[in-house]
Amino acid sequence: MKKSRGRTGRKRRRKHLQSFIDGVSCSHKLEYIKLKKWLKDRGFEDSNLRPAEFWDTGRGLMTAKALQAGDLIISLPEKCLLTTGTVLSSCLGEYIMKWKPPVSPLIALCTFLIAEKHAGEKSLWKPYLDVLPKTYTCPVCLEHDVVSLLPEPLRKKAQEQRTTVQELYMSSKAFFSSLQPLFAENTGTIFNYSALKWAWCTINTRTIYMKHSQRECFSLEPDVYALAPYLDLLNHSPNVQVKAAFNEQTRSYEIRTNSQCKKYEEVFICYGPHDNQRLLLEYGFVVMDNPHSTVYVSSDILLKYFPPLDKQRNTKLSILKDHDFLENLTFGWDGPSWRLLTALKLLSLRADEFTCWRRTLLGDVISARNEQQTLNITAKICHFLIQETQHVLLQISQLKRNNENLKNHLALVEALRLEDLKILQKSAEILCNLNMAKT
């Protein structure tokens, strides 16, 4: 008897150890105990998901039982969701209703988050606020030196994101001042730029899509945000499929998995088929071996390899622009995209072939010479981007040595660039094989 119990004990210990190979449970941490109690008081019951720390994704949720396709991952009652309805029923409501011109649903939620964070212990939402990230890694939060290392199209979007948040802050200052009667401290110190940036990133990276009916007290921007405590601990994976929606019958936001998940594994959801540039821009992270990842080719790089003396150059560019062939030109895991090759084919047309430009856009072969030149130029662009990426990776490794405070941000850009390099090297290989097949 004793022997067999010993074996079972060892087995149980092994199983217990196995459960923590990938992730370490955080259920015992005070902030999660308080959050679970707070959610329970609002009608949320869940014994399957546990907060955990994973070596590759950081904080997430692990399952305490095996999940099958079709299983309900989580069902979060409406009372747990933070929406514009929550904001209007708070002390901010009357100020929002009388403010003209009306504020946007986004600003209403940002204001609520900042005010509740400032309230500290007095906030009804404290258990949720305590588990929110203190800082973010969206481009708006990155140092200028780090942003300059991003690929060109993303660098441009990062600048646009910064401008958006700055303009949002400037245009909301008067509204923030109108809230002064609610605070003992000066609203200028509570609702400062860094507080707004934190609130904006919280909403941008963590909200679920939930359509609300248009209210007169808000501007015409769509009211589609809901913050979902606990549910927002679920991390993204491009390799899973889920169904997520608000269930009108149960009055809960529900997520069902279309994939299997073993006991004690991390449970993932999919934010959408996003490439790494989009993931970094919107959520502040990248995914290695992301099947949706692409490397973008800007029109400036495109033109580097075409003679400026080509009399039809400007006409060709106009045609490409009119037919939307100057954007979303990419290299992917399967080589250059059809759009990139088509744009290069059109630019490679000789004067005597130019009348065939419509056929080019339809994918027709115009001549063997045109095909060959297109492949050669595509390969040159690919090699140029490989060299550029390697150069940036060298800069990053030097900066990492000298800037301890930028290490995390630099590691993020490095991960993005390393993925780009893999894609470009794979594309170079594909182009080399295509060339060999043609000769």
Structural features:
globular; set domain protein methyltransferase, domain 1; mainly alpha; cytoplasm; 3-stranded antiparallel sheet; single chain; disordered N terminus; 17 helices; set domain protein methyltransferase, domain 2; 439 residues
Characterise the protein shown here.
This protein starts with a helix and ends with a helix. The chain has a 3-stranded antiparallel β-sheet. The chain has a 3-stranded antiparallel β-sheet with strand order 4-9-8, with no helix packed on it. It has 439 residues and is mainly α. Helix content is 50%, strand content 11%. Helix 16 packs antiparallel against helix 17. The radius of gyration is 26 Å and the shape is globular. Among the domains are: 82-227, set domain protein methyltransferase, domain 1 (Alpha-Beta Complex), CATH 3.90.1410; 294-437, set domain protein methyltransferase, domain 2 (Alpha-Beta Complex), CATH 3.90.1420. The protein has helices at residues 2-22, 30-41, 84-88, 93-98, 105-119, 126-129, 144-147, 152-178, 187-190, 193-206, 276-283, 299-304, 313-322, 338-347, 357-361, 368-402, 407-438; strands at 23-25, 49-54, 58-63, 72-77, 208-209, 225-226, 235-236, 242-247, 252-257, 268-269, 295-296, 330-332, 335-336.
Summarize the structure.
The protein is mostly helical and 439 residues long. The protein contains 17 helices and 13 strands. Among the domains are: 82-227, set domain protein methyltransferase, domain 1, CATH 3.90.1410; 294-437, set domain protein methyltransferase, domain 2 (Alpha-Beta Complex).
